[in-house]
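pasting input
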Amino acid sequence: MSSPVTKDARLSQLNPQSTAQVAGHPIHAMLVPIPVVCFVGTLVTDIAYWFTANMQWANFSVWLLSVGLIGAALAALAGMIDFFGDRRIRRIRTAWIHAAGNAVTLALSIINVFVHSRDAYTSVVPTGLILSAVVVLILGLTGWLGAGLVHRYGVGVQAGERA
Amino acid sequence: MRQGMINGRPMIAAAILLPLCACGPDPIDPQTQVGANPPLPEPHQYLLPPMHVSKAVGWKDGETPQVASGLAIKALATGLKNPRSILVLPNGDILVAESGGPNPPVNRPKEIIMGWLERKSHSAETPGQRITLLRDADGDGVPEQRSILLDKQNSPFGMALVGNDLYVAETDAVMRYPYKTGETTITEPGIKLTELPAGHINHHWTKSLTASPDGTKLYAGVGSNSNITENGIDEEKDRAAIWEIDRATGAHRLYATGLRNPNGLTFEPQTKTLWCVVNERDELGPDLVPDYMTSVKDGGFYGWPYSYWGQHVDPRVMPQRPELVASAIMPDYSLSSHVAPLGMTFYTGSALPQTYQGGAFVGEHGSWDRDPLNGYKVIYVPFEGGKPAGKAQDVVTGFVTDAREARGRPVGLAVDSHGALLIADDVGGTVWRVTGARAQSQAAPGPIVR
């Protein structure tokens, strides 16, 4: 497990490193599933409310949105620490698009949680539902790009562990 | 549904372009909305609705509300625990319901935030949940006796006396107690006449109560279980209605529906028609929807939740009910938006100036979801031939400081046996007594009925 210092130093120059990490595991990657799952869930329960007008679904939506927002804020914080912690990440164009896209989803979701805090039907239909759908679409793109940062550019990947 | 979609397009554009501001139409002068046929702006749904929750600060020593010229005001009783409504008995004894509602459940994150925002607007005093008796036999405005008539009540609000039966509308039931004239404490347990809708949400918990002039029926106001059906339409069964309860059997029927939160149930003395004041819905803008006073027609539907002020459809309610909306009755008299009327009493006494003869006093608890504030006063609406006639006048004001903190908030009203107007002030913990300016200084002797 313990590699010589010289080998670690050499490998770390190969891959852009995560600054916000626990034992080599990037915190951003650990937190990101929370907003992704919650915001996708919000869209699902919004659609369920749209079809049924049963308030239970709208209540699910606003709780999912709220928890998703907390997760998103923490993930964004960890992501920004990584982004500003290694200039090699900032040299990757994909990283900029990934960050900007997620900033947009965060802003839209903040608006969305206020829309979802209105009372009854117009808390979801149409504005809330449209915002939830737009957020999921953007998340699909930024998620794809984020995976690319790891799998293609090796951001935060500890190559030394496998050697 | 379709209409909502079309309306939604500019809304989403606005939502994206104007994040999180409280932009919307400028508030209009509330006075323009007082009277029949008020102007109604277009509904506007906010991301952050404009609101101002006034902090409860209470009355300092020597402070009182201000009264219109020709009147005088004095505290009849202080140190009460959230006095909410008043009933004057035939012998002149005054009953005060000291009451508070249940803690609302948290169904959405919004309720955590709202609970936190509204906490400061309540009196620090724990509601008494009891009925206190005050006896001011000589009519000098200083009670000689004060006792607890009924203790450990479940959010009591409405009270009515018919013969020797005292009815108390707790939040979940109308109770009947045996009452003997002159009694100051009732020890006998009450008998449940009729259960009222309560449950775990119980959003509007005050149950107003009055008896028909012939004494055969009771009328109970049962408020809605939400602002606008956000707790589900099933939670609204038998709510937003006035119940007619048969005094002999306890059987009930819905006398009128579509009244979001009806309070101040009173029979107009000339025409013997039932009247009430109604708290209308929130979060459609600072000037929607006007609260109102109205005569109540047997079988009448007054709009909530599907529409407001007649046929104005509320887009927040789904499914809609066009056939019910078509039948919605337009209320008689607008009090302007968000004033929160909770008490009403008609005046036929002789202690106040002639100006106040035959019309209705209304206690306006005051707004929270509007900025600038509205309400926080007692007004007088003149009546002619059993109908409102003319502009409402401010009678008791000064409940709010310059810093827009609440010294007190008026709720229930009553007229005592000497003709003085009584005002329950929950935040101030006080019952105020308004007399003619001369009567106050001379402590005019009144009839002592015992």
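fyi Chain B touches chain A at residues 1, 4-5, 8-9, 11-12, 15-16, 19-20, 45, 47-48, 107-110, 226-232, 283, 315-319 (CB under 8 Å).
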